[in-house]
Design brief:
It is a single chain. By secondary structure, the protein is of the alpha/beta class. It has a single domain, classed as 3-Layer(aba) Sandwich (Dihydrofolate Reductase, subunit A). The strands form 2 sheets. It has a 9-stranded mixed sheet with strand order 6-5-4-3-7-1-8-11-10. A two-stranded antiparallel sheet has the order 2-9. The mean pLDDT is 86.
């Protein structure tokens, strides 16, 4: 089996499973203690992966900022198949882009040129018939670069793609004591999904903790692939 990083999927939702309202508003669903724990998660992972949708909506730095500690900057991986990332976004600013990897399907030199000045490297990946990048191939490339653990902080599309590609080893889901509703509001995971409940992915070794009124559920996917390289599964 080809070794690949240990992948944790982090998401935050209302009690009815919504990560944003029908208008796209999502900050902040969870409380300050939950967000502090997210920074702890960032600090123990080699890389953070984000999709272009979440990047455009939130313009995050994706650094690990913990009180009293020097900010730790994991690799930040942008999954952007069409190269839509604005060149002046915060993700490029905290360390001059030296820890940013850009994953895309674009081969156009004129489109790639301005990004080459901003990021550590550009990873050209194959895509499926929907234009989605091959995340399994991305994980293999990251493993070759010595990255042993990845924290996915994306929206429902990148989360769904990660599940469909079976690259997730662990989930860390936060639930806030609110109800959002709305036909057009986003759930935690989209993608192709499964056709019947008996095909659903099973979670094991589940743990539940509270951050004040927020609930954090962590568990491991029973279908996770053996041979990954991180000790985060302990």
């Amino acid at each position: 089996t080809t070794k690949r990083p240990f992948v944790t999927l982090k998401s935050a939702a209302s009690m009815d499973g919504r990560i944003a309202t029908h208008s796209g508003h999502s900050q902040w669903i969870t409380n300050e203690k939950s967000r502090h724990y997210v920074h702890q998660l960032r600090a123990v992972h080699d890389a953070i992966l984000i999709g272009i949708g979440t990047l455009l909506k939130d313009n995050p730095r994706l650094t690990a900022r913990l009180p009293g500690e020097i900010p730790r900057n994991p690799y930040r991986i942008i999954v952007d198949s069409m190269l839509r990332t604005p060149l002046d976004f915060k993700i490029f600013g905290s360390d001059g882009g030296e820890r940013v990897l850009l994953a895309t399907k674009s081969h156009a030199p004129e489109k790639l040129a301005p990004y080459r000045k901003l990021v550590k490297d550009i990873l050209i990946l194959p895509s499926n018939n929907l234009g989605q990048l091959d995340l399994e191939e991305l994980m293999k490339i990251l493993a070759q670069r010595g990255i042993t653990s990845v924290l996915i902080e994306g929206g429902s599309e990148i989360n769904g793609s990660a599940l469909d590609n079976r690259i997730i080893d662990k989930i860390c889901f936060f639930y806030a004591p609110i109800l959002v509703g709305g036909r057009g509001s986003r759930g935690m995971i989209s993608g192709e999904g499964v056709n019947s409940i008996d095909q659903a992915v099973t979670l094991t070794d589940i743990s539940i903790r509270n951050f004040d009124d927020d609930i954090c559920v962590e568990g491991y996917l029973s279908s996770r692939v053996d041979g990954n390289t991180s000790d985060l599964q302990s």
